[in-house]
Design brief:
By secondary structure, the chain is α/β, with parallel strands linked by helices. The chain is built from 9 helices and 10 strands.
């Protein structure tokens, strides 16, 4: 079982991905992106599910070929059950069921968010990657979710704080859209922020008790600020875009890390990690490492290639679930919320 060969399938949103791992060691990871959504300023569910249907067979075939693994050699087929877009999830779940029936390999369902956390435990042939030690705190930040997790064991993740409204990644994308930037806007803001003065502008920070997050007030504050400034100077955004991005990014990062710092103080845990698509943000990564050094934490950053949606994290999470004997029945259905 320690050398189990796992095929992972990820189709929760607009990326079709397949990966093969032997144990926790990654043998292949293939991702097909969907550029069609850029014209609409966000993911269109119907277009996403159709693209998954087109991509799933060639992506899985390429992953198996790159890993030099035959379908009949698979120990299990792991797949993202949710959360995500139901139409997109259905493509991956259905394909996983068909392959499991054809090969006799057991099915393993994976929570997409749990997969992001378990990306920290991916191994690569001939490479040494640092893994956090248990228990550890994990700030999970993505386009649709913002959570603080206490991770006691590979499959024991407790949510100790989460957003009450928008996710941090959603705030990035929506504020970028207001500034006329293409979708996805988060990476564009990150790139421009490196050229700007992050103390030029100030925006509202939510006053939420405990370990909860809120980003709707910041988003509204940003929108009203731009409205007032553009009323006086129609070229305001174009003339100040880098400073706007830098100031916005600093505000979001400060909100995220403030609650992470509180969580570390309350739990006494000094092993701290970040995960999810927004963990690729350069400003967040830099500020996280500086805060960790200041507080004496053992910090762990996921490699950039495993921050966004990918099947490598699903395969490795599936491996740990297989070790625990957690397999799924053939009547398993996708879930938009988990």
């Amino acid at each position: 079982m320690l050398n189990a060969t796992i095929l992972g399938i990820e189709s929760s949103c607009d990326d079709t991905s397949a990966a093969v791992s032997r144990g926790a060691t990654l043998l292949s990871n293939v991702i097909a992106n969907q550029r069609v959504h850029e014209a609409y300023g966000g993911v269109v569910p119907e277009l996403a599910s159709r693209a998954h249907q087109q991509h799933i067979i060639p992506v899985v075939s390429r992953a198996l070929e790159d890993a030099q693994v035959r379908p009949r050699d698979l120990s299990a087929v792991a797949f993202t059950r949710g959360p995500g877009l139901v139409g997109s999830l259905l493509v991956g779940v259905s394909f996983a069921k068909g392959l499991a029936l054809a090969t006799g390999a057991p099915l393993v369902e994976v929570n997409h968010l749990q997969g992001h956390v378990m990306a920290h435990f991916i191994d690569e042939p001939g490479a040494t990657l640092r893994h956090p030690k248990f228990p550890f705190l994990c700030l999970l930040v993505s386009g649709g979710h913002t959570q603080l997790l206490l991770v006691r064991r590979p499959l024991e993740h407790e949510i100790i704080g989460q957003t009450l409204d928008d996710a941090a990644g959603e705030a990035f994308d929506k504020c970028a859209k207001v500034m006329g930037m293409p979708y996805p806007g988060g990476p564009v803001i990150d790139r421009l922020a490196a050229q700007g003065n992050d103390r030029r502008f100030s925006f509202a920070k939510p006053q939420i008790g405990g370990l909860g997050y809120s980003f709707s007030g910041l988003k509204t504050s940003f929108l009203y600020f731009l409205r007032d400034q553009v009323a006086q100077n129609p070229a305001f955004v174009a003339e100040n875009k880098a400073d706007l991005c830098a100031s916005l990014q600093r505000t979001i990062v400060e909100i995220l890390l403030h609650k992470l710092e509180l969580a570390a103080a309350q739990t006494g845990v000094r092993e701290v990690a970040i995960a999810g698509g927004v963990s690729a943000n350069a400003g967040l990564r830099s500020a996280f490492c500086l805060l960790g050094k200041k507080r004496g934490w053992n910090t762990c950053l996921p490699p950039l290639r495993y921050t966004t949606d990918n099947a490598a994290m699903i395969a490795v999470a599936g491996y740990f679930k297989l070790l625990a004997g957690e397999t799924a029945a053939l009547d398993v259905a996708p879930m938009a919320r988990m």
